[in-house]
Task: inverse folding
């Protein structure tokens, strides 16, 4: 009686196994949703005896682990390596009303051999944990991959639409989605798992994680069907080949590549918008010869016939021809000189 009193003080009133630190896990399988069942009690991990192991109990474990539905009750000994001899074995009797395995009562009959360990197989969860675009020139262009069940997989193009790409681009911090298509050359195809799910977005979601996910029907996708998405980069500009970041030849970022801007129609208002956007003070006037002192650029000429009102906060707000349309050569690349303060 005295011992019981002190145990009550140490543990606290009303505390049982479920109130102490506990957890459940499946070990020895090829992912976290299948394997030998192990339960943590009082800070110690032990296996679970299969004497009272039922489909209902497996379903509860699958739900507690946030896996998919239970597939099968399985013998824990089939998930090597076998548990060590000194690891405890909990013989649990669950009523079916518990929410966690730790809430189940212990049977007075002990199991003394890990040959009786219980196992479980649950379906892998399809919910998206993370997502990314890979193997493109920037994080805004590439092959779609999602993380699920703690592993990465590619996304099949079946039922993937520009609507899904718009949500993805927005959450990645990129500009608007401009293209989504089946994958690319062999070097850019995925090599690992193919996500067995499909998103069913309505278009109003802020994240792909908010979209309902359903298992893919008739899944015969290969990595030739991997989804590839092009998002516009968030607009960026820079001055290069000058003495500081506030002077030089103007370049803008588009589709993951830096390109120059043609001087057709360029004037003081355009200079000032650039200097203001770069936090470089006021635009300084330049003679035509000075504008050529930073040399010609290389690569694409992205913008031509740029016209600003002078009140814009970014060059992207100024009128211009379509990206990449111009009648210029790199000898006409514009440069800008700012006061820096």
Result:
């Amino acid at each position: 009686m005295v011992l019981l009193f002190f145990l009550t003080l140490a543990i606290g009133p009303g505390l049982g196994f479920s109130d102490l630190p506990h957890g459940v896990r499946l070990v020895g399988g090829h992912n976290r949703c299948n394997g030998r069942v192990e339960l943590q009690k009082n800070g110690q991990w032990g296996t679970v005896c299969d004497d009272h192991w039922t489909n209902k109990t497996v379903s509860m474990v699958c739900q507690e682990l946030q896996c998919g539905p239970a597939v099968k009750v399985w013998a824990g000994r089939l998930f090597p390596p076998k548990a060590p001899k000194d690891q405890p074995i909990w013989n649990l009797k669950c009523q079916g009303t518990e929410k966690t395995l730790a809430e189940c009562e212990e049977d007075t009959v002990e199991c003394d051999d890990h040959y009786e360990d219980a196992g479980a197989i649950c379906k892998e969860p399809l919910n998206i944990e993370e997502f990314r675009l890979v193997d493109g020139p920037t994080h805004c262009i590439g092959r779609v991959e999602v993380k699920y069940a703690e592993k990465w997989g590619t996304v099949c193009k079946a039922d993937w639409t520009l609507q899904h790409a718009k949500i993805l681009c927005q959450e990645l911090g990129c500009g608007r989605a401009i293209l989504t298509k089946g994958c690319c050359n062999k070097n850019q195809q995925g090599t690992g798992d193919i996500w067995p799910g499909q998103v069913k977005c309505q278009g109003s979601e802020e994240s792909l994680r908010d979209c309902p996910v359903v298992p893919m029907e008739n899944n015969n996708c290969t990595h030739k069907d991997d989804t590839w998405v092009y998002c516009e980069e968030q607009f960026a500009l820079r001055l290069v080949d000058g003495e500081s970041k506030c002077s030089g030849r103007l370049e803008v970022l588009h589709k993951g590549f830096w390109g120059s801007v043609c001087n057709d129609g360029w004037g003081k208002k355009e200079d000032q918008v650039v200097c203001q956007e770069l936090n470089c003070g006021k635009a300084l006037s330049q003679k035509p010869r000075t504008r050529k002192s930073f040399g010609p650029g290389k690569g694409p000429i992205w913008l031509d016939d740029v016209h600003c009102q002078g009140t814009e906060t970014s060059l992207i707000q100024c009128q211009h021809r379509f990206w990449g349309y111009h009648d210029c050569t790199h000898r006409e690349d514009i440069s800008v000189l700012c006061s820096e303060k």
